[in-house]
Amino acid sequence: MNNLWKYIIISSAIVLAAIVLAGAYTQRYRTNNGSITVTGLGETEFTSDIIVVNAKFSTENYDAADGYRMMERNRTEIEEFLKEHGVSSEDVSFDMLSSYKMTNSVYEEGKYIGERFAGYRLTQSFSIESNDVEAVEEAARGLSSLIGEGISIEVDNPMYFFSKLESVKLDLIAAAAADARQRAELIANNSNAGLGTLIWSRAGVFQITAATGDEEFSAGGSFNLSSREKKARVTVRSEFKIANIQ
Description:
It contains four helices and eleven strands; from the N terminus they run αββαβββαββαββββ. By secondary structure, the chain is an alpha+beta fold.
């Protein structure tokens, strides 16, 4: 009889130890796995409503005064050209004219002996910034034709911006955060659990690319300037508590 009680006590101790260990394991599992981390996506396409075109024209002349007068004539022709193509003078900004003294290296019997004055090179940059994207695009394409009029001009490719970009960014963050919560709820519901409170949430960098094509993303964020039609996207990474674990 005494031996029977001894076996009963030993068996009870083993069962109790098993229950304690099981409870400890379960508690550890719930503690380490009591949250869900998800990444939500916000994405939209938009059309740029601001165009910027940078350009410059120049001339070379042995006499600085003659060169200046030629630059004034060239500037007038450029202004008239832009006006004829529907570009408002208020959207055109001319920088200060710069002058550079040119020299030629002089050699005698193959030996360098100094520099000889060769005249002046005068350059003036200007930029066009406008909401009339179509008019400026057409004008920018035609500016190079002034070369045929004797004007040495260089025109950069247009850059496109969006005046309401900050509003787009805020909307994207909200959409990405909502998407993250929806994903977390889906995971929780399909795991026989409920979704608890938000632990933390962090937005990633914005990626603004051309609306079409396979432009690569950048770890520091990208900002496409060459395409009028753009696509913006951002991710939000969030962690939620798990409630009512079955």
